[in-house]
Write a structure and sequence with these properties.
Layout (H helix, E strand, L loop, with lengths): L1 H18 L2 E6 L10 E4 L1 H5 L5 H17 L3 E2 L5 E20 L16 E20 L4 E12 L4 H16 L10
Parallel strand pairs: 2-3, 2-4
Antiparallel strand pairs: 1-6, 4-5, 5-6
Length: 181
């Protein structure tokens, strides 16, 4: 019982940290973001993203949904253009768990179990999504959000949810100074 009370919080922290999206932002701090009320997608930039058209559409739907929630509207004459880019890489995580009980100073003891080293190897894909906000009239980058996290999806629905999670976390930092926690 005591072991469960001790390890349960650690397990929960581990599980939530694996699914988290790490977000970084950069922006032009000389810009007043309040006048930007309309947006459109920057097709030229989005076409360069090295992912399937299906995933591009999923990301664009998620971005559009988040910007609409922020009170922006989609327009043919936008204040800002939204572009995206992605990259991914394979990662390997190796853990050496020393699980030993009992005594021994390197000597074999037939009455005590001494466990052994257990090597855990996990391979996963880490993805990064870049969301760029560009001033439409000046054609210059004014804000960039970068989200990184583990890509895990067993089916289309899980993929859709993971994309929404990435986009929501990234755009929670836009516009600067108006972040939602």
């Amino acid at each position: 019982m005591k072991i469960t009370k001790f390890f349960l919080p650690l397990i929960l922290i581990f599980l939530t940290s694996c699914s988290a999206v790490r977000v970084q932002t950069d922006y032009n701090n000389k810009i007043d973001f309040k006048p930007y009320k309309t947006f459109a997608f920057y097709k030229t930039g989005i076409d360069k993203a090295p992912i399937s058209d299906l995933d591009k559409k999923r990301i664009m739907r998620a971005i559009e949904g988040e910007l609409l929630l922020k009170g922006m509207t989609k327009s043919k004459t936008p204040d800002v253009l939204v572009s995206l880019f992605t990259k991914s890489r394979e990662r390997v995580n190796i853990n050496n768990n020393n699980a030993g009980l009992g005594f021994g100073y390197g000597a074999w003891n037939p009455w005590m179990w001494r466990g052994g080293n257990q090597l855990n190897v996990n391979q996963y894909t880490e993805g990064t999504l870049f969301v760029d906000i560009i001033d439409a009239s000046k054609k210059e980058l004014i804000w960039q959000g970068i989200g990184s996290g583990i890509l895990k999806a067993k089916n289309v629905e899980q993929k859709e949810e993971r994309i929404k999670e990435f986009v929501k976390e990234i755009l929670s930092k836009y516009p600067p100074g108006m972040e939602t926690k």
